[in-house]
């Protein structure tokens, strides 16, 4: 019967025709873009040759440009026969991405390297409903992982810092980027979140922290309400930008939220996600230098990411801007020594540099100071070459070296050295390149700006029930300094603000009082297990003055289960943040502290159970016996005793009589 | 005179033992027992053993005749339909309710409509986007009274083919290999990958808006897509290692390809994601193109130098033969055939079709798919609840919080609501099926919330041994005192009784000789 039915086949092409009406759209064929050849390499270069046979440039600033064309530099133009396809050439396809590397020698043979990467997202329309069928998000260079997270948590600004090590500001001067791009030792996170209420903002913040934890393989998910503060004067997003952050829904408010995980270990697993965020993925440009072994084998390193929202009110579109910065300070001789001797062993005697003016023989050697005539290349420091430039942006990858005239900086392309007058090198193409540095006197370094203030904090007191905090402010300059001091202390430090006092060293103005120094104060007391102590005060430090502000606190006892597995290690207290408001803008952080709390004997609960149970058993046994014991008169007892003379007693008596008999 | 308190002492001892056994032990047991909410175990077991025993899905179909008027055609078709359906095994019972067109509620586009059209031949046609089936008949078939049979056969074997196929066997045992597990929200990630670092661009926004938006609209009752696109440089999914070999099988590709970077991006909210990756090899590793992609094609032959592969439960990747040149731009004409291929594969990945290109009338298929998904969701929820029962039975010391019971009861109530909707012959139309689908998604969620309760599955329960270890220092001494005290009491009592017996014997012996002397 089925055969009777003339089945009309509605075939697949119907779908094709209806859903894809323009499948046979005209193909577009354009002209291909010319491959830029090497002829525009390093425009400001002047070659000279030196004894080592390398082509080198000296650092004259003359404007006349001489081309050091070397055939070796030419990239073979293999793309000559580009074919016509539906893939056309769109000349000048460039994406909003920029990367720079700044190399700066520091005193005592240290070297600061600062990587910076800037990315901009595609424009998007805020407040777009998610069930719009035409809603597609596109990504080019901005990392895909961030936008959904920022949208979901309504985050308008996000800052994340991974910092470890000690920045010696007395010899290295100011922190890179005036300290605004590095955190305290450990992980620090703050964000500006748009929300209806503080509670909602906290929920969004928690989601944000958990998402970031996943992206950066870090323990950021341990951020909870006992570590979170809402800063009042510090961390204001307007610190750096004059224009404020946009609000997408005007019935909501912006909340600034911050938390830190003190002394959280930072390692390769945190660096890899940073590199993955970059469009070059560490395969070209300066990001090829970033290697976990070298970045973390440093005296101080800081990884930071800042994302900001910027909107254009006239077009009602917004962009996200991301800035990724990686700064490291390494000690050059120790890194070079490790290259030579990967396994640490003593230097052979013939390579020892001894002071011959002092007693010197086979057993004695007074070492000479470090050699001041040095030469090394960045590939020796990072163990890798720079693989060309990033190719996707208008701006080529740029490397700048900040040195005095006692130093020479060159870029090494295929064994040929080039120099520029400003020591900045624009990298081109995809060939291995290297930066070579040499100094006649490495002690001479580019001008280091002095830090406006030195702040250090320490724990005072002894014992397990109370302690004190002492913060020393030192203004070495000739101008008074206004700064905001921000401190977030864990709830188990019960701070007594009434004990706050000011101590001035002998050289300072002894008349100065606490009220004169502290201009305004914001204090949120801690609440057990749910809120940290939040202390923020504005201080004016008079010129050439050093004073300390100290106060006392009580240590609380934690619950049995609240102690970490290594309870005797102590509890990390995050660094205090000092933001200088005038005369310059600067931010610095104190070191973290290690607070020792009294730790219980962890077998205690079971001991308590056993002891109380024993006492209860004893009491119960006595009571039970009292109640059940048979009461008899003395007479009856005697009768019973004589009747119930135990067999043992009889046996004993018998033995005794036998013994007496034997003696007898 | 001795105080005779033996009975009183025994009574006190008995009281202690009685208190210990009757009050102490039950009190201790109850106070230290873990809370286990009473789950409706038997009901869930019966649901598991007799699947869909209370379901009889009724789909209303409206019949309309355009030329002739057949006043009783719906009754005649109903008889034929019932006969056809009864002749087959049904795992989930279902039937059609054939009704005259005049009884239709709601707009025509939302209901299944059969139009009878007089023509020169006999045949049928199913509308592409609406739910209308047209049955053509000729005068001869009217005379031989074959029309009701034609209609019944058309709608059962063609319009409701998905129901006929899927509901005839136990679909709970079939495991989908290609299709992802159904979820109402799916994330779609479209990526363009190139092995090089040259800047490239693509007209993806216009291509998606023109070709993917209609598909999104079409599928919107079933799934909501969120879509993002991205360009990834320096990543050819490890394909370059295959470039040396001339004959590459799909298995080789599945071994070589490295999807980790695309799959590890789980930043989106949706629990399920699908991918479309368009890959260009690197100029350095494959300057003359990947050898295994259409070996005969030339670079000019742009329509032929890519090949697409479906990765089960992941998505589709499209491998291009030739590397991209610097500053290339993929235009719409390049992307459209890929989008078209992907759309076909998407139906397969969603489980709507078994093979690529099977969908001929998506309007009807999507409607059937809604019903099937609803039933699958019900089955999934039942299975989850059954697993919960099994879990609760196998871990007797595990706590079952009250919330689990609340969620289980809510899920079971919701299940009944959905079945009421499915069984009601009066209702029909898009609104009903959408509502049933939405409720069934909620049902799956509820049953999963019940199962994945953090206090229950995190092995967070108090073992019996631990309980004894903690309480033994208290219970040990007090039990020893009570029981040994009681035993001592009993012994003493026996001794006393013995002594008294002896005494009595002695007394009687003493009295007997005196008596005899008296005698």
UniProtKB/TrEMBL annotation, chain A:
Keyword terms: Membrane, Signal, Transmembrane, Transmembrane helix
Domain of life, per lineage: Eukaryota
GO biological process, one term: attachment of GPI anchor to protein
N-terminal signal peptide: 1-25
Pfam families: Gpi16 (PF04113)
Glycoprotein is among the record's keywords: no
Entry protein name: GPI transamidase component GPI16
Gene source species: Zygotorulaspora mrakii (Zygosaccharomyces mrakii)
Lineage: Eukaryota, Fungi, Dikarya, Ascomycota, Saccharomycotina
Automatic annotation (TrEMBL), chain B:
Compartments in which it is found: Endoplasmic reticulum membrane
Biased composition (Basic and acidic residues): 495-510
Keyword annotations: Endoplasmic reticulum, Glycoprotein, GPI-anchor biosynthesis, Membrane, Transmembrane, Transmembrane helix
Protein name in UniProt: GPI transamidase component GPI17
InterPro entries with a match to the protein in the record: PtdIno-glycan_biosynth_class_S
Entry similarity comment: Belongs to the PIGS family.
Organism this protein belongs to: Zygotorulaspora mrakii (Zygosaccharomyces mrakii)
Gene Ontology CC terms: GPI-anchor transamidase complex
Membrane topology: Multi-pass membrane protein
Transmembrane segments: 7-29, 468-487
Secretion signal span: none
Recorded metabolic or biological pathway in which this protein acts: Glycolipid biosynthesis; glycosylphosphatidylinositol-anchor biosynthesis
Coiled coil: none
Disordered: region residues: 495-519
């Amino acid at each position: 019967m089925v055969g009777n039915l003339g089945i009309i086949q509605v075939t697949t092409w119907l779908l094709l025709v209806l859903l894809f009406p323009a499948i046979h759209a005209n193909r577009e064929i354009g002209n291909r873009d010319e491959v830029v050849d090497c002829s525009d390499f390093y425009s400001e270069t002047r070659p000279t040759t030196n004894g080592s046979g390398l082509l080198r440039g000296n650092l004259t600033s003359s404007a006349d440009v001489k081309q050091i064309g070397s055939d070796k530099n030419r990239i073979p133009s293999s793309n000559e026969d580009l074919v016509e396809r539906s893939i056309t050439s769109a000349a000048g396809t460039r994406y909003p991405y920029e990367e720079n590397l700044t190399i700066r020698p520091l005193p005592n043979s240290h070297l600061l390297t600062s990587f910076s990467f800037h990315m901009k997202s595609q424009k998007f329309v805020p407040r777009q409903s998610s069930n719009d069928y035409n809603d597609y998000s596109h990504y080019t260079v901005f990392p895909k992982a961030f936008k959904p997270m920022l949208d979901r948590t309504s985050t308008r600004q996000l800052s994340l810092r991974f910092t470890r090590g000690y920045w010696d500001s007395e010899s290295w001067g100011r922190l890179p980027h005036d300290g605004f791009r590095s955190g305290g030792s450990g992980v620090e996170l703050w964000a500006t979140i748009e929300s209806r209420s503080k509670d909602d903002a906290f929920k969004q913040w928690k989601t944000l922290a958990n998402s970031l934890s996943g992206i950066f393989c870090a323990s950021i998910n341990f951020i909870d309400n006992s570590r979170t503060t809402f800063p009042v004067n510090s961390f204001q997003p307007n610190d750096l930008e004059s224009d404020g952050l946009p609000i997408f829904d005007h019935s909501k408010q912006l909340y600034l939220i911050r938390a830190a995980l003190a002394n959280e270990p930072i390692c390769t697993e945190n660096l890899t996600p940073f590199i993955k965020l970059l469009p070059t993925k560490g395969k070209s440009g300066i990001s090829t230098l970033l290697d976990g072994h070298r970045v973390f084998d440093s005296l101080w390193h800081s990884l930071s990411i800042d994302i900001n929202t910027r909107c254009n009110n006239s077009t009602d579109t917004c962009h996200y801007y991301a800035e990724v910065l990686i700064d490291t300070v390494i000690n050059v001789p120790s890194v070079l020594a490790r290259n030579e001797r990967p396994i640490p062993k003593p230097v052979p005697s013939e390579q020892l540099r001894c002071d011959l003016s002092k007693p010197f023989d086979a057993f004695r050697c007074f070492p000479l100071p470090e050699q001041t005539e040095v030469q090394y290349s960045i590939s020796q420091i990072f163990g890798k070459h720079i693989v060309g430039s990033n190719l996707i942006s208008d701006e080529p990858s740029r490397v700048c070296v900040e040195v005095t005239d006692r130093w020479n900086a060159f870029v090494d392309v295929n064994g040929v050295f080039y120099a520029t007058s400003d020591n900045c090198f624009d990298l081109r193409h995809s060939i291995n390149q290297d930066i070579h540095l040499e100094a006649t006197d490495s002690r001479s370094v580019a001008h280091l700006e002095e830090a406006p203030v030195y702040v250090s904090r320490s724990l005072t007191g002894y014992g397990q029930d109370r302690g004190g905090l002492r913060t020393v402010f030192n203004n070495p300059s000739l101008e008074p300094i206004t700064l905001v001091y921000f401190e977030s202390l864990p709830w188990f430090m019960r701070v007594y603000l009434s004990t706050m006092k000011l101590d001035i060293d002998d050289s300072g103005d002894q008349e100065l009082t606490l009220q004169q120094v502290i201009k305004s104060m914001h204090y949120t007391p801690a609440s057990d297990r749910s809120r940290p102590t939040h202390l923020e005060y504005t201080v004016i430090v008079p010129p050439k003055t050093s004073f300390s502000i100290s106060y006392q606190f009580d240590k609380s006892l934690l619950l049995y289960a609240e102690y970490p597995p290594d309870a005797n290690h102590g509890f990390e207290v995050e660094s205090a943040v000092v933001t200088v408001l005038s005369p310059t803008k600067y931010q610095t952080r104190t070191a973290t502290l290690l607070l020792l709390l009294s730790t219980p004997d962890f077998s205690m609960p079971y001991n308590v159970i056993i002891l109380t149970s024993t006492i209860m058993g004893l009491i119960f046994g006595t009571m039970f016996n009292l109640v059940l014991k048979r009461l008899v008169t003395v007479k009856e007892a005697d009768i019973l005793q004589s009747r119930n003379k135990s067999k043992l007693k009889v046996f004993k008596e018998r033995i005794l009589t036998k013994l007496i008999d034997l003696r007898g | 005179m001795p105080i005779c308190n033996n009975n009183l002492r025994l009574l006190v001892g008995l009281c202690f033992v009685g208190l210990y056994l009757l009050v102490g032990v039950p009190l201790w047991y109850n106070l230290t027992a873990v809370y286990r909410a009473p789950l409706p175990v038997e009901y869930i077991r019966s649901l598991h053993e007799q699947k869909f025993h209370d379901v009889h899905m009724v789909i209303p179909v409206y019949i309309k005749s355009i030329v002739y008027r057949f006043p009783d055609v719906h009754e005649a078709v109903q008889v034929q339909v019932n006969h056809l359906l009864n002749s087959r095994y049904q795992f989930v019972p279902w039937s059609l309710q054939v009704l005259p067109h005049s009884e239709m509620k709601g707009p025509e586009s939302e209901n299944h409509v059969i139009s009878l059209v007089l023509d020169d031949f006999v045949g049928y046609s199913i509308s592409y986007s609406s739910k209308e089936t047209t049955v053509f008949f000729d005068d001869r078939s009217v005379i031989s009274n074959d029309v009701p049979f034609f209609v019944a056969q058309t709608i059962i074997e063609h319009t409701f083919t998905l129901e006929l196929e899927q509901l005839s066997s136990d679909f709970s045992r079939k495991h989908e290999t290609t299709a992802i597990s159904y979820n109402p929200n799916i994330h779609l990630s479209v990526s363009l990958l190139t092995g090089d670092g040259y800047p490239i661009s693509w007209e993806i926004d216009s291509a998606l808006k023109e070709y993917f938006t209609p598909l999104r609209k079409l599928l919107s009752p079933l799934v909501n897509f969120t879509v993002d696109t991205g360009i990834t440089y320096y990543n050819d999914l490890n394909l370059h290692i295959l470039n040396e070999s001339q004959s590459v099988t799909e298995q080789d590709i599945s071994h070589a390809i490295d999807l980790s970077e695309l799959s590890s991006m789980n930043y989106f909210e949706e629990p399920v994601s699908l991918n479309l990756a368009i890959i260009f090899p690197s100029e350095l590793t494959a300057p003359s193109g990947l050898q295994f992609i259409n070996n005969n094609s030339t670079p000019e032959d742009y329509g032929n130098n890519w090949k697409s592969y479906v990765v089960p439960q992941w998505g589709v990747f499209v491998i291009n033969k030739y590397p991209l040149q610097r500053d290339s731009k993929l235009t719409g004409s390049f992307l459209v055939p890929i989008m078209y291929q992907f759309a076909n594969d998407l139906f397969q990945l969603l489980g709507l079709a078994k093979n690529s290109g099977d969908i001929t009338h998506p309007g009807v298929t999507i409607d059937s798919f809604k019903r099937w998904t609803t039933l699958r969701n019900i089955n999934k929820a039942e299975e989850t609840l059954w697993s919960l029962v099994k879990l609760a039975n196998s871990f007797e010391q595990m706590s079952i919080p009250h919330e689990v019971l609340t969620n289980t009861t809510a899920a079971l109530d919701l299940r009944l609501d959905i079945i009421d909707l499915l069984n009601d012959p009066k209702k029909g139309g898009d609104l009903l099926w959408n509502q049933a689908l939405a409720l069934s998604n909620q049902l799956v969620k509820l049953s999963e919330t019940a199962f994945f309760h953090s206090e229950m599955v995190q092995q967070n329960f108090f073992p019996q041994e631990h309980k004894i270890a903690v309480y033994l220092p208290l219970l040990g001494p007090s039990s020893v005192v009570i029981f040994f005290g009681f035993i001592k009491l009993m012994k003493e009592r026996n001794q006393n009784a013995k002594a008294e017996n002896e005494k009595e014997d002695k007394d009687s012996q003493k009295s007997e000789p005196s008596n005899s002397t008296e005698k």
